[in-house]
Amino acid sequence: MKAIIIANGTYLKKELFNKIYDKKDFIICADGGLNYIDNLNIIPNLIVGDFDSVNKDILHKYNNVETVKYKPEKDYTDTELAIEKAIEFGFKEILLVCATGTRLDHTMANVLLIEKYIKETISIRLIDNNNYIQPLVQNKTINICKNCFVSIIPLTDYIQIDSLEGFKYPLLDRTVNRGSTLCISNEIVSETAEIKISHGIGLLIISND
């Protein structure tokens, strides 16, 4: 069981949401994320935020759901507050949806929340209509469609890549510094691909056009 946090960005396609959603999941709506979940006819487990972006009629509709309201003048975004609540409930696996969009500041902040919580052994993944993002901290084997692009972005000063196997552009024993674009837009050329790193933390981003 995982926590799914619904933010207030671009709506995730319903068919994609259905693929990642399990009825056992704990659903937290961060403010305007309630507008999205209402369209799916799913009752959330918790609603948090300052409620400056949620439809007030929809909010009233869920007045029986546990709600935590914050003042607009606060030091954290509604999404980060939702993550903190998920952690309070004991979840170590958290999926962010509707967390990217036209507001680049919010998009970047939400992606960087993945980095923040890695240090607290909390696994946060983010999915939107074109991208899947997760922390990369150890050897990983991935099995994805061959028409996807795979990028690795270092979050630490550098990551040490022991090998990339099954990719169009393989690597062997390569140091990739933070800010490098070396590992952007690689492609899968076999049924499975393996990433081995021995040092550092990165973001693994799987994208499609």
Topology (elements, then pairings):
Elements: E1 3-6, H1 14-20, E2 26-30, H2 33-39, E3 46-49, H3 56-61, E4 67-69, H4 78-88, E5 93-97, H5 104-118, E6 123-127, E7 131-136, E8 140-142, E9 149-154, E10 158-165, E11 171-177, E12 186-187, E13 193-199, E14 202-207
Parallel strand pairs: 1-2, 1-5, 2-3, 3-4, 5-6
Antiparallel strand pairs: 6-7, 7-14, 8-13, 9-12, 9-14, 10-11, 10-13
Descriptive report:
Strand 10 and strand 11 form a beta hairpin. The chain is elongated, with a radius of gyration of 18 Å. The chain has 209 residues and is an alpha/beta fold. It has a 10-stranded mixed β-sheet, sandwiched between helices. The protein has a 4-stranded antiparallel β-sheet with strand order 8-13-10-11, with no helix packed on it. The protein folds into 2 domains: 127 residues, 3-Layer(aba) Sandwich (Rossmann fold), CATH 3.40.50; 72 residues. The model has no long low-confidence stretch (mean pLDDT 92).
Task: Please identify the top-level CATH class of the largest domain.
Answer: Alpha Beta
When the domains are counted, the total is: 2
CATH architectural designation of the largest domain:
3-Layer(aba) Sandwich
Q: Would you tell me the overall average pLDDT?
A: 92
- Count of distinct strands: 14
**Do you know the CATH topology of the largest domain?**
Rossmann fold
H/E order of the elements?
A: EHEHEHEHEHEEEEEEEEE
The major sheet is characterized as: 10 strands, mixed
Structural class: alpha/beta
The CATH homologous superfamily of the largest domain is named Thiamin pyrophosphokinase, catalytic domain
Radius of gyration over all CA atoms, rounded: 18 Å
What general form does the structure show?
elongated
User: Kindly, what is the distance between the CA atoms of the first and last residues, rounded to a whole number of angstroms?
Assistant: 30 Å
Percent in helix: 10-25%
Spans with pLDDT under 50 lasting ≥5 residues?
none
Percent of residues in β-strands: 25-35%
